[in-house]
Design goal:
By secondary structure, the protein is mainly β. It is about 0% helix and about 60% strand. It has no helices and eleven strands. It starts with a strand and ends with a strand.
Length: about 120
């Protein structure tokens, strides 16, 4: 019921930056938290960052100090600013949102966006 639209992926060299965006069009739901996960070829999907409605942010140890997550509650969007990118950051990045629709909990995933960091 809740659609997430991702954008901002691409190809950059090591040390460069990218900014990912995730939007949830509509106003019939309440989002409590949004976050990002990533999955590299041959690896399991892993947590990257998340942010709650009160702007409390959590990061995986591998991206602390390099990535910053932010949120615009009014527009139900979340952004992930990725700086000092490393080849190890190469993966498909998926947006995630959790909340309620008519008082029922939900969890949604975006379509994924490719991030490739060359050495």
């Amino acid at each position: 019921q809740v659609r997430l639209v991702e954008s901002g992926g691409g190809l950059v060299q090591a040390g460069g930056s990218l900014r990912l965006s995730c939007a949830a069009p509509g106003s019939f739901f309440k989002i409590n938290a949004m976050g990002w996960y990533r999955q590299a070829p041959g690896k399991q999907r892993e947590f990257v960052a998340a942010i709650t409605s009160d702007s409390t942010a959590t990061y995986a140890d591998s991206v602390k100090g390099r990535f910053t997550i932010s949120r615009d509650n009014a527009e139900n969007t979340a952004s992930l600013q990725m700086d000092s990118l490393k080849p190890e950051d190469t993966a498909v990045y998926y947006c995630n949102a959790v909340g309620t629709v008519a008082a029922r909990p939900f969890g949604s995933w975006g379509q994924g966006t490719q991030v490739t960091v060359s050495s």
